[in-house]
């Protein structure tokens, strides 16, 4: 069993001032929907910002409502709104990504927390037990725990390496390519989509063409596609590559 980790949600100071949250709260029952959204964020912390539909109930909304102890209809309305404004994304209706959590997840290992708590206790004990000068106080606090801190730092690095190795293993919902859209958001092409595209365009090197698409979207901000039009952009690109039957890409032809 791996070491326990602690997670927290970093809520930015302008969270309730954002237009999307203000609009959500302005809807009839909006405060309830906002609470549901916050509960969704907290639930997704330990799964890298994703909520998963396991198929236990008929719909994702019903299953999530049961997990959150909320009303089915309220959860359904909240999900619909979040998808509409880009705060919730899904490609296959089984994995749902909360985009706000991309930079808002904080965590630490249990060992790091123990060291931090231990240092706080030691500082308080020293302050109560003696009136030593600042230099003596620092020496007292540091000598006994420096070795433990170094050991825990090394363990923390190893834990992060293991987590990275686990996260790097591709899954059906893992993003294979990330295409920047016109509004600055990102469209992620998953392994499932790549497999479907391979079946449709057997004459094209799909992964290679997707890498070219990433570069094209990055270098041509004025020509980037909307979320609604990105699907047609991908299929047009691969269709051209498939028809050409060449090892080169459609880089210069699709604009």
Fold and architecture overview:
By secondary structure, the protein is of the alpha+beta class. The chain has three domains: 5-103, Winged helix-like DNA-binding domain superfamily/Winged helix DNA-binding domain (Arc Repressor Mutant, subunit A, Orthogonal Bundle), CATH 1.10.10.10; 110-167; 175-244, no CATH class. The protein contains ten helices and seven strands. The protein has helices at 19-26, 30-43, 60-68, 72-84, 110-129, 134-143, 146-168, 191-200, 206-219, 230-244; strands spanning 5-9, 50-52, 88-90, 95-98, 105-109, 175-180, 186-190. The strands form three sheets. It has a three-stranded antiparallel sheet with strand order 2-4-3. It has a two-stranded antiparallel ribbon with strand order 1-5. Strand 3 and strand 4 form a beta hairpin. Helix 1 crosses helix 2 (30-43), helix 3 (60-68) packs across helix 4 (72-84) and helix 9 (206-219) crosses helix 10. The longest helix is centred in the middle third of the chain and has 23 residues, at 146-168. The protein starts with a strand and ends in an 11-residue tail after the last helix. The model is unreliable at 247-251 (pLDDT under 50).
Topology (SSEs and partners):
Blueprint: E1 5-9, H1 19-26, H2 30-43, E2 50-52, H3 60-68, H4 72-84, E3 88-90, E4 95-98, E5 105-109, H5 110-129, H6 134-143, H7 146-168, E6 175-180, E7 186-190, H8 191-200, H9 206-219, H10 230-244
Helix pairs in contact: 1-2, 2-4, 3-4, 9-10
């Amino acid at each position: 069993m791996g070491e326990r980790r602690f997670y927290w949600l970093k809520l930015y100071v302008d969270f309730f001032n954002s237009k999307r949250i203000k609009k959500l709260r302005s809807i009839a029952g909006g405060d309830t929907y906002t609470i549901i959204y916050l509960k969704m964020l907290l639930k997704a912390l330990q799964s890298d910002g994703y909520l998963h539909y396991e198929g236990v109930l008929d719909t994702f909304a019903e299953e999530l409502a049961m997990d959150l102890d909320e009303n089915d209809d309220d959860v359904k309305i909240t999900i619909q709104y979040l998808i509409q404004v880009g705060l919730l994304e899904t490609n296959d209706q089984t994995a749902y990504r909360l985009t706000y959590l991309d930079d808002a997840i904080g965590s630490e290992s249990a060992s790091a927390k123990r060291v931090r708590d231990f240092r706080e206790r030691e500082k308080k004990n020293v302050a109560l037990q003696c009136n030593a000068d600042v230099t003596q106080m620092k020496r007292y606090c540091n000598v006994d725990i420096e070795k433990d801190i170094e050991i825990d730092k090394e363990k923390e690095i190893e834990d992060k390496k293991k987590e990275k190795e686990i996260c790097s293993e591709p899954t059906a919902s893992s993003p294979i390519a990330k295409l920047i859209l016109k509004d600055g958001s990102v469209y992620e092409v998953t392994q499932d989509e790549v497999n479907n595209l391979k079946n449709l365009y057997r004459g094209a090197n799909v992964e290679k063409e997707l890498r070219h698409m990433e570069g094209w979207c990055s270098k041509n901000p004025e020509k980037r596609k909307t979320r609604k039009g990105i699907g047609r952009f991908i299929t047009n690109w691969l269709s051209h590559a498939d028809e050409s039957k060449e090892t080169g890409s459609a880089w210069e032809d699709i604009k």
